[in-house]
Every structure is written in C-alpha cells, then in structure tokens.
Amino acid sequence: MKRKQPNKYQTDHFARKAKKEHFPARSVYKLQEIQEKFHVMKKGDRVLDIGCAPGSWVKYAARVVGDKGRVVGIDLKEVSEPFPAHVRVMTGDVIALSESDAVKTAEILGTGYHAVLSDMAPSTTGHRDVDAARSYYLCRAALEIARKHLVPGGCFVCKIFQGGDFEAFIEAVRNGFERHKIFKPQSCRKESKEIYIIGLGKKQEDEECRDIASGRI
Questions:
Q1: Which residues does the annotation mark as catalytic?
Q2: Which of 30, 86, 193, 196 sits between 20 and 30 A of 41, alpha carbons compared?
C-alpha cells in the first residue's frame, strides 16, 4: 500500500507551532515578527484589523495591547474564534462601506486607532499581474481606511503582492507616514510573492497620501 504523503500544512513548522499555541493560522508569526522588529503596537493601544479572518492577528494583537487596550476586527467571513472581552469582531464588507459612506464607517468602526493592520489577500488566479493588481486595490482601500481612522503618530501594516503598482503604493505610504519599511517575515513561505509595507508615525497632514490612495493622482 502506498503511504499517504503529508500535506504542506502538516509539514510546515509555523503551522504546527500555531496549532500548538492555539492560534487559528500560521500568519500570526508574520505579525509577531513585525511587532518585534518595528513595535507597531503597545499596551493600551486601540488596534483595527481589516480582513481579520481567521482571527490569528486579532488574537495576537489582543495579547500585545492587554485588557486596557481595544482590538476591533472585521472580515467578510464570520470568525468563530473565542476572544477576550477587549476584542470586538464584526462580519461585513468594510471596503464597500468605507467607499460609499465614510460617516457610517466611522460610526461602526470608531476612530482614534493607534494601529491599523491589513493581512488581506485577493482570490488568486495564478496570473501574477492580475493577482498583483487585485492586491493593490485592497491595499489602496486599507490605506484610505488607515488614513481616516489612525491617530497622528499611528502605525499601518499592510500585505501586498509585488507587481506593477508596488512602487506607487510605497509612495502613497511614504507620503502619509514619517517613515516606512518594506519587510518580508521569515515565516512567509519562500515561494510567496507577498511582502509587508509598514508605515510608522502617521503624519498630521497627509493630503497627498489621501489623493494617491483614492486614485486621484
């Protein structure tokens, strides 16, 4: 009898570690690496996680900010993971809502966040240019949400697939934040085209960032 080969999840060190440490996905270690290197969150912070399913980033952020902080997550998919009392997770299309009704978005999500996180990824086609363009659209939307909901000095973390619009997105982040970093965590799979753009210190005045993120320039 031919032995069944283990799947990628079973042989993946970070996937096994996530299961052992009770996180729903290996992606938690990407955020952990970002946090340890760039300190995007601290105790008592308010954090917004856009596209939060299956909940690993929310769970990790909740540990970092502690029970004096606040973590809000939103995703198209329902998240069934149990969370502590200082976490609120919602189901909905935050991008469509933010594009159509900024006032209602602020009412639902709140404002005054110290960090906005986005690990969103598009449904992939296998065509690099198409997938990169879809990723860029999500990143632009996430940046616009961050611009509206972050406090001055706040931080932004966003996953993007490298492609033709990569430099344009970096420029948008550069114009909205005092510093920016490009970082690929060791926990990313080697074959992955994903990379993280980190904005540190949201500028008080970021009109150009808003215009680029909105596609006006």
A1: 159
A2: 193
